[in-house]
Amino acid sequence: MSVAFFDLDKTLLAVNSASLWIRRELALGHITRWQALRASLWMARYHLGFVSMQDALRAAIGHLAGTEALPIQKRTTAFYEEQVRPLYRPGALLALEDHRNAGDRLVLLTSSTGYLSELVARDLRLDAILCNRFEVNADGLHTGKPLGIVCFGEGKRTCAEAYAKEVGAPLSSCSFYTDSYSDLPVMEVVGKPVAVHPDHRLRREALRRGWPVVDWGVPRGGSPLKGASGAPQAGASPR
Questions:
Q1: Helix, strand, or coil here: 172?
Q2: What are the φ and ψ backbone dihedral angles of 223, each rounded to 5 degrees?
Q3: Count of H helices and E strands in the chain?
Q4: Pick the CATH number of 3-226 from 3.30.310.50, 3.40.640.10, 3.40.50.1000, 3.40.1190.20
Q5: What is the pLDDT of residues 11-48, one digit of tens each?
Q6: Residues 21, 36: Cα–Cα separation, whole Å
Q7: Which long-range contacts (CB under 8 A, 24 or more apart) does 65-68 make?
Q8: How far apart are CA 77 and CA 99, in angstroms?
Q9: Whole-structure pTM value
Q10: What are 48-69's pLDDT values in tens digits?
């Protein structure tokens, strides 16, 4: 048994879906300019090292308190179909098929929401999802609390370790694909870490450690899910 873990934003996807979501919610009037600015400021403070992303994610989840879950789920579905679905990297689809043909379990390991991750997993035919999920009360309202640990950094590693143990897969036989230095805790415990279009810190670390660095390309208009035969063949997973 082996598991291939995949990050979502800027790894399977060629974009950061959270940034697209904020812009869309602002344009549709679901959030104010101040709320959009506040989210951007949290991101800026994180990149400058002033706050942890765990704190930023907890703050974002906290701001959902009292909101209805169903309308957000519906808006997420429309967002995915209209903006996200065409943005899978062609090499990502090839890597998924490579691991599927090898009999590996395919697992999404992401800081994104359960609402979006469920749609991704459905289209890509993944075996499991490890992500951030929100607590919803009996009235269908968000409580402002996460379900379980925050899936980011060390939290991602904890999620990966628990899943691997559950399915009986030694981490030494598992793979993980990501673009982000923040995922270093996971890359350090799997046997096959791969940097996909890495940020500058992860690129430097991957080169220092001899980890593969791959280019999975960008989609050429339309949804690669409708046929990736014309996509560039770059970045099939190293094995």
A1: helix
A2: -90, 120
A3: 9, 7
A4: 3.40.50.1000
A5: 999 998 988 988 898 888 887 787 777 766 666 655 54
A6: 10
A7: 65/142, 65/143, 65/144, 66/141, 66/142, 66/144, 67/141, 67/142, 68/140, 68/141, 68/142
A8: 27
A9: 0.86
A10: 444 566 666 777 777 788 889 9
